[in-house]
Amino acid sequence: MIESVRIPMVDLGPQYLELKRELDEAALGVLAGCRYILGPEVESFEREFSAFVGAEHGVGVSNGTSAVEIAVKALGLEPGDEVLTTSMSFIATADSFARCGIRPAFADIDPRTFNLDPASVSERLTSRTRAILAVHLYGQPADMDALLEIGKLKDIPVLEDCAQAHGAVYRGRRVGSMGAASAFSFFPTKPLGGAGDGGFISTSDAALADRARMLRAHGSRKKYLHEVLGANSRLDELQAALLRIKLPRLEAWNESRRRTAALYDKNLSGVTVPYVAPDVNHVYHQYTVRTPERERLIKGLAERGVGSTIYYPIPIHLQPCFSSLGYTEGDLPECEKASREVLSLPMYYGIPDSHVERVCEAVSEVMG
Question: Where do you find CATH 3.40.640.10 in the chain?
């Protein structure tokens, strides 16, 4: 057995220490300026991040869940309409708009990438389907060309959930630039994370962006005049200021994650390492392996001081809150099998190579 050492799933310390002076100055600047809601930092970040993504417009919102909800509503979807999406994701992918009466429906996944399988999407479209929502899970882009072609043939928009894929590239295009609208989360552990919650909607549709801005502010374009029912969902000035400091480093941080993933790929044994589709840049928000002996691996890693996490143990279509949708076990076999086998290993910017090597040794000991 290797020497026990605590290796966490994520450590935000290296990122903060690298930028401590700049982050501290930015935070103090916002406090001194006494402008905390929808001020110059948010306006600047909206321009800078949408330009980074490759979209014409950006709308800062309070979190990733709100970003999905507002993007769906900004398309004009109404209660009773259906959004076809993946069940292999965090609950926010679906509960964000289900709370508005818009029905989630689910297609199966490609077992290699864990992303939506376009063939399953085609099979599961119904007359009620008004949009397709692709999730770039774990930081790997979904097969957007195939999904966009389906959307074009059926005359329905395709949305992107980019909450885990900041900076990921699909065939020369950044995620967040291909769909009718795209949602991002700036939860602290994301590739681009804030010091709290934050979210973003990118789009190249000016009318959709305008509607999203209205929806994030109680359905109001003009103070005290509320055209529709909206929400209080604005990106904080403080978060925008910190994200502006981090954004220019995102490319380098993502490249560091890819180097860490390559080290895992080289040294892991006894598990299936992540598959990376051709012509994409994976950003490895999570480094996720597969094994049918997951519980044994989790237990063995914990005994050796190595953190691990399951993303996600229960598919969305089998969650109790969605029992009324009528899905049962066996409806999405690839998704359900993946949920029983996936396990994410420690991955973050600044993780020492020695820690990665220790994780690999631990996996080999447990599974060998």
Answer: 15-247
